[in-house]
Structures are given as C-alpha cells and as structure tokens.
Amino acid sequence: MVNLSKYIVVTGGVVSSIGKGITSASIGRILRSYGVNVTAIKIDPYLNWDSGTLNPYQHGEVYVTDDGMECDLDLGHYERFLDTELSGKANITTGKVYSSVIEKERKGEYLGSCVQIIPHITEEIKIMIRDVAKKTKAEVVMVEVGGTVGDIESQPFIEAVRQLKNEEGHENCMFVHVTYVPYLKAAKEFKTKPTQHSTKELRGLGINPDMIVCRSELLLDDNLKEKIAHFCDVPKNAVINTPDAHSIYEVPLTMYSENVGNIVLDRLGMEKPNKADLYEWSQIVEDLKIESPKVKIGVVGKYIELEDAYISIREALKHAGAANKVKVEIDWIKADNDFNIDSLSKYDGLLIPGGFGERGISGKIESVKYAINNKIPIFGICLGLHAMSIAIAQLNGHPEANSTEFDEDCSCPVIDMMEEQKKINNMGGTMRLGAYPCKVKEGTIAYEAYKDSQVSERHRHRYEVNNEYRDLLTDFGAVISGTSPDDFLVEMIELKDHPWFLGCQFHPEFKSRPNAPHPIFKSFIKAAKDNKQGKF
Ligand code: GLN
C-alpha cells in the first residue's frame, strides 16, 4: 500500500487540561509554515456520539464545523491554528465508533464472528482515522487522543494507534507525549516523577514516545531535560519545554525555537520543502500583545463561570482587537442573578452570545434596550439576535413579545420554531446546523464589513425570527440586512439611528482566524473603539 499520509499521535499524561490541543495545533502550525499540508483529528473517548448534548459547563463550547457536526472545542483550535476547514469526521468519539460497529454487526458484515474490542473496535478506529487522511489528502495528520493515558475509556484508542504505527511503518507515524512538570514552590524544585510515571504507563501500553512536551509554569533547564530524556528514553533534544505563555498563539513560536519542526520532519523522513515561514504568525503575536488603547467589552451571558464555554467568541474578539490595534478587555457578565443594568455603562461595546433556555434571558433583553437607549455598540449572536428582536418588539408597543423557546403560548412570538424543526423531537443533532449561505443587503454595516453580497456562515439553533412579525421590527427602524438566498429566513438585523447594532442568527465566531479576523467582529471592535474615543 502506498503511504500518502504520515501520522503524529499526541497523547497526554499527568493531568488533563494541559493544552494537548494547543500543542498538537502548534506542531501542525509549524509544519504548515514549511508548506506541509496538515490536517487534524481529535479523539474524544467519551460515549456521547457528538458534543451536541454536552453541558458547556463541563466541556466548554460546542464547536460547529461547516458540515454541521457539533464537536469538541479543540477543533476550533485546529481550524484557527491551521487556517483550514475541518470536516466533522475529524472528531472521533467512542459513541461514533461503537455505533458504526454495531450497525455493521446488525448488517451481518462480520460474517458470524464474535465482535470484540480487539480487533473490531480498534479496526473501526483505524478506518475512521485513515478515512480523514484519505479525504483530506493531508501529508501529515495530527491525531490527538483526548483524556490522560491510563484512562479506561481511552485504551481502545491507544491500542488502535499502536497498531496504526505497525501497519503504517515506523517512519510514517510518530508519538508525542504531553505531560506536566510541576514546580514545588516550597522546595524550589521541578518534579519530573509524574512525567516519568505517565511515560512508563504509555510504554506499558506498547507506545514509546518520540518526543516529550513538558508543560510547566517556568522554563526547564538543561539538566532537567536530560533527566527526563534519560528516564523516558527519548533523545534530549526531543524533550520540549512549553512554559506558560502570554497567549496560546505564542506556543508555535516557542516550540519552533525548541527545534520541533526539524525534529518532526527528520523523524518522519520528510524533506523540508521550504524554509519555515512564521513571519505572519509572529506579527499576529506581536499585535496581540498590544496593551493600549484598551476597549472594554461586556459579554452578557450565562455560562460565564467557565470561560471555555465562549472560547471562540473570546478568540474572535482577540483577533479583532489585534486587527484594530487595540487590546480588548472582556468582562463576563452573568445575565441572571445579581445582574445590574447600571454596570453596563462602563463598556465600550456589548455582546450577547448564543445560548439555550430561559435563564438569564430577561437580563439579555434589558441589556439590548440599554444599548439602544444609550447608543452603545451591541452585537447579538444567535440567542443574542433573539433577545434583540424581542427587545425591539417590546419597545415597539408589545411588552408581551417573547420567543416560543421561553413561552410556548406567547401571544406575540417574534421568535418561533421553524416548521421542519417542529417535526424533530430528539435532543441530539436536531438543530439547523452547519454552513448556510446568507444574502447581504447593500448599504448596511454587514455589507460594509463583508464587502460581499453572499457569504456562508455556520448555524446551531432551532428558533428563528418569525416572518409574521418582520414588520413589527422594521416599523421600529430595524433593517433586515441578511437573509437566506430565498429571503425566507432572517439572518441578520440592524437598527437605523444607532451607531452599531447587529444581530446574526449564525455564529461568526467559528470562522475567525488570527490571520483573518472575522469581518463583523472587526467592525464591532472598531465601533467600540470609536465609541470610546467619543466619536458617536
Ligand atoms: N436557543 C436558541 C435556539 O435554539 C439559540 C441557540 C443559540 O444561541 N445557538 O434557536
């Protein structure tokens, strides 16, 4: 078999949340800078089929791909770092693997054999990994195995990638193990024992890492690297240190300076097609360091205790800040308990993110009214657009206006469920999901931002602006600045006589990249900057 793709498998040890996703994405970014065609896969060993039904408090944001898969947030890091569009197939879960195996078993595809974890589940995992490689024709596929080595759930995946290496050949598959090296302040010492133990655990599962990436608070010195190399049986130059960074976008630069590009390309027997070009990336990192002027953005949301719940919004705001040469300071404001409308006066711009359920909705609607009355730039995304539409209808003489998401029997349902959605009553995957085209009306903020009359944006919702109530909105001065190409669905609304008011039914944050900030976010931050400078 001709090998088209090479694989870099990334595992994690010691503790979770040490940034395996960022590490894999950074290796991918470095390879991209050499001109290598890279894609990425995230393996999530949980039993859920996809991330759609996961509570954002537990798992952070649900990321949506163009093809409409509800995925782990790491896919967002991959898309942002690799500047590419991934398919939902890039997120492999235990749920998907087992569903597929059971479906095959029901069809009799295993010809009477007893279906087992080895070989059937591991075989299915390899099929899914190779399928991504084949479809993307990537030269290198980053495969991040979620969880921590030793977890029961991840064992079939670890076994599958072990087999993958044997089948693909040593030169076509390498293993990177990401660990945490704690610093004990009292002893003034780094401790390498957890790294030694987790590497031992990995080796016990038949995988010898080729590279150890050590996450730490501070820089590790040469002696420590030597010690880790010695105990973990990797060359000393393959012990890579990634101390805490000012921003996640610095990690590719740190890893590049640790010679990761050369080590990986050598290990995989790949020629260096070009010199690495990280110039644009380092410029972005510089722009992200800007400390002044500052603009203050209040995000009036619900899942504010866990910042990861709005990670793409945070990143998109940062990208837009760098593009406008300002530092964006974000305050996460809880729209329900203790919500104080007067606290909004200190913000240069407000953003109402997407969300589900009634909690906090009245705080969001009040925030929209406040922004209208005080002429503060305001940006509503999905549920944010719903809150804007309800607020406008209420201000236009219909205090009873609401969404049927919150009051099924509402007598003025400005937001309602689409007929097709009503027929679906399962929870998982029943929304309008993924990329849909949007027609942009000339002479609007949206058109000025996109400079295009047709765009494509990602969706994740069940409810829509109710067409029967369009006039109630436009009578108040609302402008429908984006619709589906057949004009049937409202995609964006704006408000005349307001410096910057835009709500969109889609989630533009998923398409913002550090090197290509999303046009609407960029326009919003420019408006917030103008507001701060008293231009309105
Ligand atoms: N809950 C709303 C709906 O389902 C909005 C969803 C969202 O903000 N992503 O339509």
Question: What would the keywords be for this entry?
Answer:
binds glutamine; alpha/beta; seven-stranded parallel β-sheet; 2 domains; 23 strands; 536 residues; nine-stranded mixed β-sheet
Concise summary:
With 536 residues, the chain is α/β, with parallel strands linked by helices. The protein is 36% helix and 22% strand. It is built from 18 helices and 23 strands.
Protein model, in words:
The protein is globular and about 75 Å long. It folds into two domains: 6-283, Rossmann fold; 291-532, 3-Layer(aba) Sandwich (Rossmann fold), CATH 3.40.50.880. The strands form five sheets. A nine-stranded mixed sheet has the order 13-12-14-15-23-22-21-18-19, with helices on both faces. A hairpin with a 6-residue loop joins strand 21 (478-483) and strand 22. The protein is α/β, with parallel strands linked by helices. The longest helix is centred in the first third of the chain and has 20 residues, at 117-136. Helices cover 36% and strands 22% of the residues. It binds glutamine. Glutamine binds at residues 354-356, 382-383, 405, 460-463.
